[in-house]
Amino acid sequence: MSTPVAASLTFDPRTVTAQSSLRVKQSLFMYCLGQLLVWAYANGVELAGKELLRSPEQAAANSKTGKGIARSLHLVGLAIDVALFTDTTGDNVPDYQTDTRAYQALGEYWEQLHPLCRWGGRFRRADGNHFSVTHGGIQ
Question: What residues form DSSP beta bridges with 135?
Fold first, then answer.
């Protein structure tokens, strides 16, 4: 194993506010995502990443079909969609979950990490696998 490089900067999520810069919020997002992943695996939840960064073209296409918004936080690295796997059939084979309710514990944990953390399960059109940090009035 290699020795970790000592960081010259320290990140304190308590200092991040709604007025913080995009760059600072990107650090907050990655910090909280790390916390979510550790919590998920410690609690027996298996996850896979689906979509972190999205192109402007994809965001526009998603907006046209009603599957997203043109100004998506995926464009700026402040959102991720994850895939949750649990064994729902008793065959010891995790199944991909699409129901927002399956993501509720993850969503509630995410929301308590920081006041800017938003879970898509609370959106008007529920998007249970979506986790983001709000920026510029977008969730």
Answer: 138
Tally of CB atoms within 10 A around 122: 15
Least confident of 54-68, 71-85, 94-108, 120-134: 54-68
Cα distances from 57 to residues 28, 64, 68, 75, in angstroms, run 26, 11, 12, 10
User: What residue type is 125 in one-letter code?
Assistant: R
Helices (H), 7-129: 22-42, 56-65, 104-113
- In terms of Cα–Cα distance, which of 104, 97, 98, 138 is closest to 121? 104
Domains along the chain?
21-133 (3.30.1380.10)
- With a threshold of 0.70, does the pTM exceed it? yes
Q: What pLDDT is recorded for position 64?
A: 86
| Cβ proximity of 116 and 131 under 8 Å | no
For the chain, the C-alpha Rg in angstroms (whole number) is 16
Grouping H, G, I as helix, E, B as strand and the rest as coil, residue 49 is strand
CA–CA dist 22, 121 (Å, integer): 23
